[in-house]
Amino acid sequence: MMIDYLKQAIEKMSKTAHDIKGGIPYLAQGKTYDDYSSRPSWWTNGFYPGILWLLYQYTQDKRFQTYALSVESKLDTVLDEFKDVDHDAGFIWKLSSVCHYEFTGNERSRIQGLKAASFLASRYHPQGEYIRAWNGDWARGHAIIDSLMNLSILYWASKELKDEGFYQIAKKAADTAIREFIREDGSLYHIVVFDESSGKRNGQRLGQGYSENSSWGRGTSWALYGMTISYRETKDLRYLEAAKKVASFVMKHLPSDYVPYADYLAPHEERRKKDSSAGAITACGFIQLYQLTQEESYLDMAKKMIKGLHDTCLAPEDHQALLLHGNVAYHAKDIHETDISIIYGDYYYLEALMMINGFKGYF
Ligand code: GLY
Prior knowledge:
By secondary structure, this protein is mainly alpha-helical. The chain has 12 helices and 7 strands. The strands form 3 sheets. Strands 4-5-6 form a 3-stranded antiparallel sheet, with no helix packed on it. Strands 1-7 form a two-stranded antiparallel sheet.
């Protein structure tokens, strides 16, 4: 069944890629994705090139490579002019430049990947042992659970440069996530704020979840997949334990169709909103956890989640996107951000199907 789902997704996304070519899709409210080419620093701009590299891995069709290179070149100004770079440098350049370098050995892409990793490392605050999230005065001392996924480019740079510094920063940030974000029951805070000078925790804030004390669906998926990646890269059992804790929280709270709520701990009567993107990311986390532990329950859960997405969230044939029912944030007011298709939902759905069928994921 999983191989049929993969073939169906490859066919759909190939068609979409030939439509979009070197554009940069983010959201689709109906049939057609928008284009973020004029906002090169936007955090989701790596996911479409990531999809193109997945398509290339599966098909070996050079046209996907050509489209990916065209998107990658649109992102260059961000690094070359140090323009609005933030904590999401990993998402953007691990899936564009680093993929390009790993598939072809392209030297300029290697350098862009290393620049992205260096800028990300420079956001590490040694007092509080966190990686700063957004830019702007309002965001001083802010760290977010999502950044666990961005650590992947630091682990890559550490190996590429044979320099432990990147690795140590990634580990410190993962340690802070265990200490300050993940609660005893495996639920978690989205945003934690630190005093920049002393590094002392100043409390948590409402981010994209229901409340500051709930557990945002996609944030929970970033934690599960991100902790699993830190375990893969370091073999430190504390990260495995943290990943398993989040995994068991998710398993306890998933609804019967296995598509996560936009927030697992929103009050029962408000727990209506779903987020397909959280489902796709969580499925990737479970697959990776299975690959590292060989515990069948994780593979079983990944299959149930992928089937849940396939049965309840697949977009109609004439839509460019793979999945419907994504949500940018629990309280998003803009209809363009509510119950829509989102490029990272499509990326992780395809990555989950590739990984479960023996292909390579890129985090
Ligand atoms: N990293 C931001 C999000 O997941 O929406």
